[in-house]
Amino acid sequence: MKKSYHFIGIGGIGMGALAFLLMEKGHRVSGSDLKQNAMTSRLKEAGADISACHAAENINDADVVVYSSAIKEENPELKAARALGKEVLRRAQLLAQLMENQTGVTVAGAHGKTTTSSMLAALLTKTGFHPTIAVGGIPMETSSNAGLGEGKYFVAEVDESDGTFLYFSPKYSVITNIDYEHVDHYKDFNDLLKCYRQFIEQTQPDGAVIACGDDPNVRQILSTTHVSYVTYGESPDNDFHISDYSCDGRTAKFKCYQKGAELGQVALNVLGKHNALNALASVIVGLQLEIPFSKIADALKTFRGVQRRFQLKGDVGGIRVIDDYAHHPAEIACVLSTVESLCPENLIVVFQPHRYSRLQAFRNDFIKVLSVCPNLLVTDVYAASELPIEGISGGDFAKNMRQAGYTQVQYVVKEQITEYLTTHARRGDIVLMLGAGDITDISQDFVEALRQKSGSDAPVKIVTGC
What burial class does residue 381 get, using C-beta atoms within 10 Å of its C-beta: 0-12 exposed, 13-18 middle, 19+ buried? Predict the structure, then answer.
């Protein structure tokens, strides 16, 4: 039976994915979002009715109302839906429902789950499995992070940030790593580990957990579970491991091993050992599905990455602008390690902290990881619906770093970043934008400003998969 679904906060990457899937299934979709963006524009073009405000009357015609963890209980649409007795679902509940009649392949973890799930989706698509897809980023090869497939597999990124990954019982569970995060939801690290353990144990008995054995937190949980699991990583102690990693600044290559026996080489258009490990997880899932290694390697070779994951937004006048979603100290460390392979003459890093609670909890870790940046601009915190915390701001953080002896740090308000960079960036520089907020808009603004400064009418050189 066809239904009418209303999404509160439809412009979010995960909400938009489910809206697209429902429209492909023939359901009517409406939604609301205070911030109109590329996702809302694409949804409107596909036929969704979207409002730029939250109002109780928006849900009048809806059979089902869907909301994400970003939506507060006092939201007028959510309150109205509950008062009217409408079916109300969290985003993850709806995703779990959509997956019920298919074989679930899920990816969870603190870092790397979007790239890994996108790799898996590309792998299964290119090897003829026609999967249904719902991931948390836009792959460079496509314009959408969702797609309704004719095959039996459903590839999805599942979210540990609010504990909603516990709605799922997949056949194949990929765990990329476990790190202390989401301090706004979990009372402590043990609480987070408990949820991961429960999620892992919900994997179907005839399936498998594919987990990064290099991660001590993952190892700790696996040692206490009864499920079947396969480990991967750099260490030969894992069931699968990589070796001989090399990178020429454009392509990464490495060898894959199973129980010490060489499977072959994989070449990627995405850089960094962390992405090699993401690819190895995809290799293992492919082998579980009896795809020959040679076909897996061929499919991964064509993967061009995901928007906002070390994405080269432009190369203008010899200045390369890279946009990355990294917003946790561990993610930033990986990105800074990867950028070294591009051999910049000079590196300018622009950091937009994401959430006051995260900056407060990991302030010292952020200081440590960013201390290696030769030129660092810190801008205002992207609140992500949080209220400010006294003493926790972009300006305060820059001051903290300078007090710790790192004088290369400057605080620049968001509105002045493009002007500052246009004045100071030089040929041979790499400008790296870091953050999960709207800093991505600044990266595009800066590329356009460089183009105008160069006086060229030629299009900006956009290169993907760097």
Answer: buried
At residue 182, the pLDDT reads 65
Specify the residue for token string 């497939």: 149
Q: Quick check: 40 and 164 in contact, CB under 8 A? A: no
Residue 186 has phi, psi (to 5 degrees) of: -95, 135
CB 7 within 8 A of CB 15: yes
Rounded Cα–Cα distance for residues 177 and 219 (Å) = 10
Q: Count other Cβ atoms within 10 Å, centred on residue 368.
A: 13
Take residue 393 and report the two structure tokens written for it: 């701001």
Question: How does pLDDT run across 81-116, given as a tens digit for each residue?
Answer: 999 999 999 999 999 999 999 999 999 999 999 999
- Examine the residue annotation and report whether 44 is marked as an active-site residue of this protein: no
- Sign of the CA dihedral 300, 309, 332, 163? negative
Non-local CB neighbours of 347 within 8 Å, separated by 6+ positions: 339, 373, 374, 375, 429, 430, 432
Q: Model's pTM, two decimal places?
A: 0.86
- Supply 421's token pair: 């960079």
**Mean pLDDT value across residues 353-372:** 95
Question: What is the distance between the alpha carbons of residues 230 and 243, in angstroms, rounded to a whole number?
Answer: 18
Q: Which of 455, 458, 380 is nearest to 417 (CA)?
A: 380
CA distances from 431 to 340, 370, 377 (A): 12, 14, 10
Catalytic residue among 40, 114, 132, 338: 114
User: Of the residues 103, 132, 157, 203, which is catalytic?
Assistant: 157
Give me the chain's average pLDDT, please: 93
Tokens of 41: 């524009």
% of the chain residues with pLDDT over 90: 81
DSSP line for 148-174: --SSSEEEEE---TTSGGGG---SEEE
Give the helix/strand (H/E) hosting 451: helix 439-454
Catalytic entry in 40, 77, 113, 231 = 113
Q: How far is CA 58 from CA 47, 113, 434, in A?
A: 16, 33, 36
Tell me, yes or no, if 113 is annotated catalytic: yes
Judge whether 114 counts as a catalytic residue.
Answer: yes
Residue appearing with tokens 């897809």: 133
| SS (HEC) of 119-155 | HHHHHHHHCCCCCEEECCCCECCCCCCEECCCCCEEE
User: Does residue 329 carry a pLDDT above 80?
Assistant: yes
Distance CA 328, CA 343 (A): 24
Which residues, including other chains, have CB under 8 Å from residue 454's CB and lie 6 or more apart? 316, 317
